[in-house]
Structures are given as C-alpha cells and as structure tokens.
Amino acid sequence: MPEKIELTVTGMTCEHCVRAVTEAISGVEGVLEAKVDLDSQLASVIGDGIDLPTVVAAITEEGYEATQTTAS
Ligand SMILES: [Cu+2]
Fold it and tell me: How does pLDDT run across 3-53, given as a tens digit for each residue?
C-alpha cells in the first residue's frame, strides 16, 4: 500500500528551491511522487516503504530544513 507523508520544508525562497527539494525527495528509495509547494512550505510525498529520516536527510543536504507534519 502506498503511503503519504507530509513535511514542512523551510528555507525555500523560489521555484529553483522547490525543484531542488522535489528532486532530492524523488531520489529517495521508495518515493513514487513528490509535490512541493512554495507558499505553504509543504512537501507531500507518496511512496512505498519510505524511510522518513532518509527523506529528511536528502532535504537537509540541499540546505533546507524539514520536519514531518503528518503520517498515514
Ligand atoms: Cu530558490
């Protein structure tokens, strides 16, 4: 069953940041879809067996802060 994780990502200022974060999340194993919204600073991640700390680390490596807001 695919699961959905939502994260708050802070530090993004433009579409370039959004793309960097989206690509970072997309590169994590198990991620099927990543949607990042600049205005709300929310990242929605859909995937199978996603390791949350790996997602957070991928975002942090790009220079942004990520915290989980919801999980299902
Ligand atoms: Cu930017």
Answer: 999 999 999 999 999 999 999 999 999 999 999 999 999 999 999 999 999
Helix 15-26 to helix 52-61 angle (10° resolution) is 140
CATH of the domain at 32: 3.30.70.100
Between the CA of 1 and the centroid of ligand 1 the distance, in Å, is 33
Round to whole Å and give the CA distance between 64 and 17. 9
Domain count along the chain: 1
Q: What per-residue confidence (pLDDT) applies to 45? A: 97
- 42, β-bridge pairs: 8, 37
Residue span of the structural domain in which 28 resides: 3-71
- Residues measured by CB to lie within 5 Å of ligand 1, the ion: 13-14, 16-17
